[in-house]
Amino acid sequence: MLVLAFDTATPAVTAALHDGRRVLAESTTIDARRHGELLVPTIQTVLAEAGVPLREVTAIVAGSGPGPYTGLRVGLMTAQGLATTLGVPAYGICTLDAVAYGSGLSEQFLAATDARRKEVFWARYTDHRTRAEGPFVDRPADVPVSGLPVVGAGAQLYPDLLGGGRDLPLYPYAGALAALAAERLAAGVPLDPPRPIYLRRPDAVVPGAPKRVTA
Predict the structure, then answer these.
(1) pLDDT digits (tens, 9 = 90+) for 16-42
(2) Which of 52, 77, 107, 181 has CA atoms 20 to 30 A from the CA of 61?
(3) What does the pLDDT look like over 39-96, one tens digit per residue?
(4) Any residues with CB less than 8 A from the CB of 121 and at least 6 apart, and which?
(5) Which helix (H) or strand (E) holds 59?
(6) Is the pLDDT confidence value at 211 over 60?
(7) Which CATH class is domain 3-95+171-187?
């Protein structure tokens, strides 16, 4: 098993390679505006550090969001393109699941990431492997924290509202994403196709017909 995983649903452009036992290499750059520019070089860096040619990868995994439209599409389209080129399966895993898995928590908690527009994407977990509900998008004040720990960048951005006392990991680092995918694949757990999780419409809209000018 050689799982190449990456995520572009948050400001973290992150990629990792996992051999079914451990993460062989991982690279992350925090830059919310350069997903398209940074992802392929990040993948190349990871493969080079692991000493593994791309042709030996057996599965592609991408974070499927939720996340901002443009960044999210970069990762998912790259996953589909690589899978087609290599003739290997491509899968999608909820980005919040990667944040949760990276926390290692065995108690109930929330994972929250920045959704912009003064909102957060969030989900509730019974432990770091098990999502109980979500994902949702809400204003921080409307998230039912109920005293639970909160992991992810959402807790850092809104500490007064989501201050569960634990704000790490901030992002869905690809090492956690790859390890989660490898664990599920080894256990025979079906994985979803690499399709985006959209919780609201994109900011960009098709322009309407021009207004008629009258004299």
Answers:
(1) 999 999 999 999 999 989 999 999 999
(2) 107
(3) 999 999 999 999 999 999 999 999 999 998 889 999 999 999 999 999 999 999 999 9
(4) 65, 66, 67, 95, 96, 112, 113, 114, 115, 135, 136, 137, 154, 199
(5) strand 59-63
(6) no
(7) alpha beta
Q: Read off the DSSP letter of residue 141.
A: G
Q: Taking all residues of the chain, what is their mean pLDDT, rounded to a whole number?
A: 92
87: how many CB neighbours lie within 10 A of its CB?
A: 7
Domain ranges of the chain: 3-95+171-187, 97-158
Give the amino acid at 179. A
CB atoms within 10 A of CB 102: 24
Measuring CA to CA, which residue among 115, 102, 27, 23 is closest to residue 69?
115
DSSP 29-51: EE-TT-HHHHHHHHHHHHHHHHT
DSSP annotation of 72: H
